[in-house]
Structures are given as C-alpha cells and as structure tokens.
Amino acid sequence: MATNEDLFKKIISHSKEYGFVFPSSEIYDGLSAVYDYGPFGVELKNNIKTYWWKSMVQYHENIVGLDSAIFMHPTIWKASGHVDAFNDPMIDNKDSKKRYRADVLVEDHTQKIEDKIRKEVDKARQRFGETFNEQMYRTTNPRVMENLAKIETIKTRFYSSLEKNDLADVRALIEELAIVCPVSGTKNWTEVRQFNLMFSTQMGSVNEDANEIFLRPETAQGIFVNFLNVQKSARMKIPFGIAQIGKAFRNEIVARQFLFRMREFEQMEMQYFVKPGEELEWFAYWKKERMRWHTSLGIPAEKYRFHDHDKLAHYANAATDIEFEFPIGFKELEGIHSRTDFDLGAHQKFSGRKLQYFDQEKNEGYVPYVVETSLGLDRTFLAVLSHAYREEKLEDGTERVVLSLPAILAPVKVAILPLMKKDGLPEKAREIMDVLKYRFRCYYEEKDTIGRRYRRMDAIGTPYCITIDHQTLQDNTVTLRDRDTMLQERIPVNEIPVIMDTKLSL
Ligand code: ATP
Predict the structure, then answer these.
(1) Which region holds residue 147: left if phi is over 0, alpha if psi is between -120 and 50, else beta?
(2) What are the structural domain ranges in the chain?
(3) Is 380 in the pocket of ligand 1 (CB under 6 A)?
(4) Architecture in CATH for domain 412-504
(5) How far, in Å, from the CA of 371 to the mean position of ligand 1?
C-alpha cells in the first residue's frame, strides 16, 4: 500500500504523462506553483465548470452569471481591505533558507496534538466497544482534556498576537513550541514579517502616468462592484445570486502542493444577496446545499467535513470551510462566508455611489447582506482526480491504473476502437465515430493492441470503449466495455446513441 505522499507523487506524474496537467514553462525549468492543463485536463476542468455552472445558474432561477475583468480600479482593493490586510505572516529558516507561513507552522503543530487525541479516542473506542461515548470521553479523560486545553491556549495566543500585529510574539510562540524546520530540522528562525499576496503591474505607459494596478486575488469583488448593473439589467429581486468563474492570482509564500496552492488559479464563486437579518438562515441553506453538490459527484461523504471558523474575519458573522481529504490530508476546498454588508458598504463609501436595493413593496432601500460560496476549481480538479486514481491488480496478474471519474466529468466519454487496422474495420469504426462525435467527446484510436488501447483509456478515465470487430461486419453489433467492471456486452450499432445517452447520464 502506497503512503499518501507516494500516492500524491504518483497522481502528479500520472497527470503529466496522460495529458492532464503540465508544469508551466517546463522547457525553461518551470515556473513555481503555476501549471498548464493538457488535452484531457482541460476537458475535465471544463466539465467541472459546466457541472457547477448548471447547478448554480441553470437550476436556480434567481442566480445569474457574470464575467468581470481581471483588471479593476485600484481603489477596489483599498475598499475591500486587500491593500492593507491581505497579508500572510512569513518566517524563514536561516539554515534551509526555506520560507514558511507562520500560521501554517503553528497549525501543523496543533494538528499533531489533535492527531494524538484522535489516536487516544480510537483506542478507547476499541476498548469500550458499542457503549463508547466519544463526547463524554473527550470531556472527562484527563490526557485528552489536557491536550485540548493546550490547543486552545496556542490558538488563542496566536490569533490575538496576529490581531494586534504583534509579530514578535508570533515568533516567540514558534520558539516556545520548539517548532523546527521540516527541511533543516533546526529552530534557527528569522523575524516574522507580513507579506502582501497581491501581484501588481502597471497600467498605461511606464514613463508617463502609469498606475499601479493589481491582478485580482479573488473574483468576488467583480461581483460586488457590478451588483447594481446586474440587479437592474436582469431585473433581480432579493434574494438573488451572481455567479462567476474566473482566474485569481496570489503570490503565495508556500506554494509547493501541486494544484492545491497555486499562484494563478481559478475560482467558482457565487455571492447571494439577502435581506439583512436573514443572512444566517441563508448561510445554513448554502452550507447544506454546497455539501450536497460535492457528494452528488459520487465521492463518499466521509471524504468531506465542515470546519467552522472560530475566529471570524472582520467582515464575517459566520464562516465555514468544506474540507476534503486530499492525499496531503483534510484541507480547505470551499469557503462559505456570511459577509454581512461589509463589501457593498465599503464600495459605497470609497466610490461615493449608492449600492442599495430598492424594495418596491416596502418602498424603501437598503444595502443587502451577502452570503458567499467560494470554490477553488483547481482544488476541485485535484479532489476529483485523487479520489478517482486507482491501481488495480487484475486476475491475470497484470496491473492497471484506472481513473474512476464520474461519467459526467470524464474528459472522453467513449473510445471507438477498430480491433484491427484492416478488413474494413476502421471504415466501419469511422462511421460510428461520425455519428457519436456530435453527441459526446469521443476518441478514435486504431494503433496498438486492443489491450493496450483499453489501458490507455482506463488511465484517462474513459467510461466506455466500443470495439468494432469482424462480427460487426456480419451482424452490425459492437462490444461495449465498461471501464470499472471491465465487463463487455454486445450491442446493436443503431442502439449505441440511446444506450450511451442512458449510461452517461447516470
Ligand atoms: P487557504 O486558507 O487554503 O489559503 P483561503 O481561505 O485563502 O485558502 P479563500 O480566499 O476562501 O481561500 O478562497 C476560496 C477558495 O479558492 C478556496 O477554498 C480554495 O479552493 C481556492 N484557493 C484559494 N487560494 C488558492 C490557491 N493559492 N491555489 C488554488 N486554489 C486556491
């Protein structure tokens, strides 16, 4: 059994070998934390986008889409708080010269204590069997209680120092906890410094009145500044939502976890505008709804969990993350935040324009509250891919790597394979291809043995292969092979479209 780290490495190399993800600028030795999506990766990514877009925009009459520009007026980032506060505290190890986020070092430390607690609880569960009451155990067992208190003390001190911008104390805490650099193993740390994550560039000619502008670090602000344009042009009534898929850029300090933490990535965000006072109900609604969306992909519910924030950002009155169990552990996949009227209020102040919704029935205007669902497209890609990746030993002793992707997301839906490159089989196969290619993404291949071609289709996650053989020429039937079970059945050529329609919609 491969360790999780091995598994992660395998997924990365599989992604490259089979045309899902390439490191950016590879022939120039790459560009750190930037990736390109290959021929099958772009299909998978597009399918994820469509699945999200349909569930948000098509299935909700009161949610509409937007595609706002990446470049925006620089004052937007002043209003949103990003210029002053979109910082990560960073610390360097003088021996390894590696840079870390101070919060990540502290969180990894508390995670280790949590792991200890979990082990203790698991042991107790085995000892007590059915009668075991975890809640009671956690609140009465002295060792567990001591460790829980330790975590609480660390977190409280850390967050309060960060809030006060007392970076010297953050460093003192790292030293007191005896946290070592995972690379050098030493405690030889620099000071902690704040590092703004926004990329900036110049707009206009550099020598004349060039303006510093930023590459957006989130897509949300494009939605807020267009709130009235959208509401009026699409005649939306509260509650309503605006959805957007687009690139975001962050100069991440620690960026070495493949698609998990990239410097250029994509977000799928939806901002839901509600009446003040109703935001917590809608927050609960979207929490449930978004979890339902994730599990609708057929990935087991145990792979997801909520992580409610105990420390809320200044603009939020409720926040949770949906975490996914990646090969690198449970980590944030999506954020759901009740953002109050912070954003619209700030843009009103900075722009001097009213951003109010006018309630016709009550004949009064107000600044709506916002509930946001913010999902990383690349992290969803990684979640889906890592769950789908499987190495199997077959009955004949050989092995295969298969991506058991849900059919709706699979880059290629059907492969069309003439058994041999002669006797009129390729011509017959082309006839079938020419009908099917207008309905689904198909892949035609006649090179190599049929076994090899099946393996290649398994490796990119193609749910079905249609093989055209000599019998096809006699009775107009083909074999249909299922990726997961590897079972084959014979079906009539003229029924292929209907059968595929049914199977692929499952
Ligand atoms: P993290 O704590 O992991 O840095 P975050 O809380 O800053 O994430 P948000 O600002 O809430 O993230 O962004 C919403 C979503 O965008 C995240 O849940 C994640 O899926 C995605 N995302 C954020 N940063 C990155 C990144 N550097 N690379 C890939 N996806 C990202």
Answers:
(1) alpha
(2) 412-504
(3) no
(4) 3-Layer(aba) Sandwich (3.40)
(5) 17
217 lines ligand 1 (CB under 6 A): no
Helix, coil or strand: residue 109: helix
Strands (E), 99-198: 99-101, 189-196
For a ligand 1 pocket test, name from 245, 290, 332 the mutation site with the most ligand atoms within 8 angstroms of its C-beta.
Answer: 332
* Those residues with Cβ within 8 angstroms of residue 36's Cβ, 6 or more apart along the chain or in another chain: 21, 22, 23, 24
HEC secondary structure over 43-86: HHHHHHHHHHHHHHHHCCCCEEEECCCCECCCHHHHHCCHHHHC
Q: Which residues in the chain land under pLDDT 50? A: 1-2
Binding site membership of 340 for ligand 1 (Cβ less than 6 Å): no
The answer to whether the CB of 82 is under 6 A from ligand 1 is: no
Q: Is the CB of 261 under 6 A from ligand 1?
A: yes
Nearest alpha carbon to residue 379 among 327, 425, 414: 327
- Type of residue found at 151: I
Q: Is the CB of 246 under 6 A from ligand 1?
A: no
What pLDDT does 312 receive? 83
Tokens standing for residue 165: 């911008």
How does the average pLDDT of the chain come out, rounded? 94
Q: pLDDT tens for residues 304-317?
A: 999 998 778 878 99
Tokens found for residue 336: 């759901």
Tell me the percentage of the chain whose pLDDT exceeds 90: 85
Name which residue sits closest to atom 25 of ligand 1, judged by CA.
261
The confidence score (pLDDT) of residue 1 equals 40
